[in-house]
């Protein structure tokens, strides 16, 4: 199972995400380092836990606040620090996905929360290699969050069916109401999703509690998890990270040009 640490960025700091209520997010306090500087936290994930794949959520851009989109930080993590960056930065069209991939990120994350049109959901898998894109099905208490009415009106299971038929292969299933709560993921929903779509690579996020939950999710067939709070609290430590996950990966290669 892939353990993917999450860094939520707000006002140039790494913040502690709690239940998706962003106005109350405060700088991270972590057993891994004494700083809320995102670069220092990323290095702590790598140097203390052996994790080289990392999920970055640029909340300023996701919220359309007009502030920095963290380009310099993302470029440094991808190119100089050799992290495999999964970037959620409000990417909502093919052009912006291509720009970020050209910059050196490992995967562009297309989140349902910021998706404006169903055409983008359908068009992106035809435009990029499968191993360079991931869709985040953002929910709150089991209901999809999206600016796209056609997606917002679907049940999560119907949305997964649409994503699969559109060519998506890796999908994050995330309930924002559980993020940072320590409640654990919605296990009944995860079981239904995995059983209904065994050919999809599902990554679970939202309230991961500790090593026992990691084992349960792995036994269900979940390929990876997004984790932040449990890493910062020490509930999940280096002894819980699978050796395969801890191996360094090759540096990112530039995104190939297409005709």
Any descriptors?
single chain; 259 residues; alpha/beta; eight-stranded parallel barrel
Structure description:
By secondary structure, the protein is an alpha/beta fold. 34% of the residues lie in helices and 22% in strands. It has 11 helices and 11 strands. It has an 8-stranded parallel barrel with strand order 1-4-5-6-7-9-10-11, surrounded by 7 helices. The longest helix is centred in the N-terminal third of the chain and has 12 residues, at 38-49. The model is unreliable at 248-259 (pLDDT under 50).
Structural class: alpha/beta
**Approximate shape:** globular
Name the strands of the widest sheet in spatial order: 1-4-5-6-7-9-10-11
CA-to-CA gap between the ends?
Answer: 36 Å
The major sheet is characterized as: 8 strands, parallel, barrel
Provide the β-strand percentage band.
Answer: 15-25%
- Rounded radius of gyration (Å): 17 Å
Count the beta strands: 11
- The unreliable regions are 248-259
Helical coverage, percent range: 25-40%
Can you give the mean pLDDT? 88
| Number of H/I helices | 11
Please write the string of helix (H) and strand (E) elements.
EEEHEHHEHEHEEHHEHEHEHH
How is the topology of this model organized?
Layout lengths: L1 E9 L2 E4 L9 E2 L10 H12 L3 E6 H4 L8 H10 L3 E5 L5 H10 L3 E5 L6 H10 L5 E8 L2 E2 L4 H4 L3 H10 L4 E6 L11 H10 L4 E5 L5 H10 L3 E4 L1 H5 L9 H4 L13
Parallel strand pairs: 1-4, 1-11, 4-5, 5-6, 6-7, 7-9, 9-10, 10-11
Antiparallel strand pairs: 1-2, 2-3, 7-8
């Amino acid at each position: 199972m892939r353990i993917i640490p999450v860094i939520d960025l707000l006002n140039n700091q790494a913040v502690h995400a709690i239940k998706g209520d962003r106005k109350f997010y405060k700088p991270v306090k972590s057993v891994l380092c004494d700083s809320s500087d995102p670069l220092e936290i990323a290095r702590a994930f790598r140097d203390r836990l052996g994790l080289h794949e990392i999920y970055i959520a640029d909340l300023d851009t996701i919220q359309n606040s007009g502030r920095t989109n963290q380009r310099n930080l993302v470029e440094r993590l991808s190119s100089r620090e050799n992290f495999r960056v999964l970037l959620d930065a409000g990417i909502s069209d093919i052009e912006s996905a291509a720009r970020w991939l050209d910059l050196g990120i490992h995967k562009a994350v297309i989140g349902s929360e910021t998706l404006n049109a169903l055409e983008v959901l359908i068009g992106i898998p035809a435009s990029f290699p499968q191993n360079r894109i991931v869709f985040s099905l953002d929910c709150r208490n089991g209901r999809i969050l999206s600016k796209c009415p056609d997606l917002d009106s679907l049940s999560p299971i119907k949305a997964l069916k649409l994503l699969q038929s559109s060519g998506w292969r890796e999908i994050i299933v995330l309930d924002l109401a559980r993020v940072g709560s320590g409640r654990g993921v919605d296990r009944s929903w995860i079981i239904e999703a995995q059983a209904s779509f065994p050919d999809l690579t599902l990554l679970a996020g939202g309230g991961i509690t500790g090593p026992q939950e990691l084992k349960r999710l792995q036994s269900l067939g979940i390929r990876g998890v997004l984790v932040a709070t449990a890493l910062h609290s020490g509930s999940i430590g280096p002894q819980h990270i699978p050796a395969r996950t801890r191996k360094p990966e090759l540096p990112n290669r530039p995104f190939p040009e297409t005709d």
